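REQUEST ID: PR-0412
SUBMITTED BY: lab tech R.K.
PRIORITY: routine
TASK: structure prediction, single protein chain
INPUT:
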Amino acid sequence: MKILYINALYTPYVAGGAEISLKLIVEGMQANGHEVVVLSLVPEGDLQHDWVDGVKVYRVGLKNRYWPFSKSRPGKFSRLAWHLRDRYNPAMRADVKEVLHLEQPTVVSCHNLVGWSIAVWDEVRQAGIPIVQVLHDMYLLSPDSTLFKNGRPRTRQGLIAGLLRHNHRQMSKKISAVVGISHHILQRFVAHGYFDGIPHYVIHNARRIPEARALRLREEGQALVLGYIGTLSAVKGLEWLIAQFKISGITGQLLIAGRGKEEDEQHFRKLAADDRRIVFRGYADPVDFYPDIDVLVVPSLWEEPLGMVAVEGLANHLPVIASNRGGLLETVADGRNGILCDPDEPDSLGRAIFMLWKDVAYYNRLASEARSSASEYLSIARMVNEYEQVLLAVTKNDGKV
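STATUS: complete
OUTPUT:
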């Protein structure tokens, strides 16, 4: 079986967890004896290819107004024009067509199509090749990939999202199979009428997570160091975390690692400026960050597709405080390996912070369970084998059951 993987980015260009997971899948499928090829985007340039850790990777310049993965935020009208073109970008079809001609894949596995648009589906189907779409985020439902507005997840697309995703629902029924990285994200699409009548699968992501931090039990009277690592943005709940930490009354610190848009970083630093216990680390390697903290906090306001950062924390014997939204409900088990909080009840986060500081026995029990509770997410072989079975099924049946 020869597999063409299409994603917005590929190593060394990484915007988030999708790129990390994709590289593991691609290399795992190659190790299983299949031929693999990747097609991804760069800011500009004609189609060319290179080799990344033994994998052939095509890259081509994005044909749109700007590169969406930079730190700067374009103006409102520029963003609207970009999304209008990204609704269905026919200019990207020629590059897909050329790679299909050069490589003659058996099946195409589509991941994040931001920049490519669903024009990819038409080109691949025109070539008579089955398609498996993997859902890493809400891009196919909403142009901002979050389906989140005014501090809350949206149950409906809204007028603008509906217009910019016009016909996506109907076209989604023409692919061969769909995979959600969590039950939650798959059901969000099903509830909106997407992927009707085609095979549905759920395959949880996995990571090769080094045990950078050994199990470390707390003693009475010790300070508690909380940690946040990830993108510094409103949808990640960082403002909520800063506010609740400041009023929690605990003895400890809050370490914040990561980067975001420049204006967002300035906003969060200003919110924390009057509390010296809050320290911004900038970008940090998780291997260096996790040994410095006692609790990982994942306070997302939007519905995380899965929440692999929570898994990273658990794998390092850290209890996780997380919001009770999205795929985090599939990784964090309240009372077993962490505490779930409700963004609609803001003080629930402060109470969770205080509880893990005050109740040492409870903290130690959660910490002792953390890594074992995440075992499913630490098996790369499990993830790769499950994707292999899906691809073999669609090449045999072209998605017909």
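NOTES: The mean pLDDT is 94.
REVIEWED BY: pending
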